[in-house]
Amino acid sequence: MDCVFCKIAGGQIKSAFVSENEDFVAFDDINPVASCHVLVVPKRHIKSIKELSGFSGQALKNLLGIIDTVTDEKGVKQTGYRVIVNQGSDAGQEVEHLHFHVIGGRKLGRLG
User: Fold this and answer.
1) What residues are annotated to the active site?
2) I need a labelling partner for 17 at 20 to 30 A (CA). Which of 6, 69, 73, 86 fits?
């Protein structure tokens, strides 16, 4: 598979992980929009958010747990952060592997 996020999660492309658990890895975005801009990526290739319905309850707990760890490690847990999923080209998704942007460390404007 020629998926950059699969290669990062699998170790073929070196990246310093902010956090890792059984189901997800988290690493700094290469084009950050704030001082905290971390991508949380499933270790297995998942193309769309609707495929999360196939995840076990434990995997979903691991998703929320890694986001909690990232916000703590990056110092934004208390001040606030945003978790964003861009799904599809109209939303600006650039890599067709589900990923969550954890963004914080500055005042974030309103969406919409």
Assistant:
1) 99
2) 86
> Confidence band (pLDDT; 50, 70, 90) for 110?
confident
Q: What's the token pair of residue 69?
A: 């760890």
Q: Supply the DSSP string of the chain, one letter for each residue.
A: ---HHHHHHHTSS---EEEE-SSEEEEE-SS-SSSEEEEEEESS---SGGGGGGS-HHHHHHHHHHHHHHHHHTT-TTT-EEEE---SGGGT--SSS--EEEEESS--PPP-
Domain-wise residue ranges, the chain:
4-104
Degrees, nearest 5: CA angle 96-30-45: 25
Specify the CATH superfamily of domain 4-104.
HIT-like (3.30.428.10)
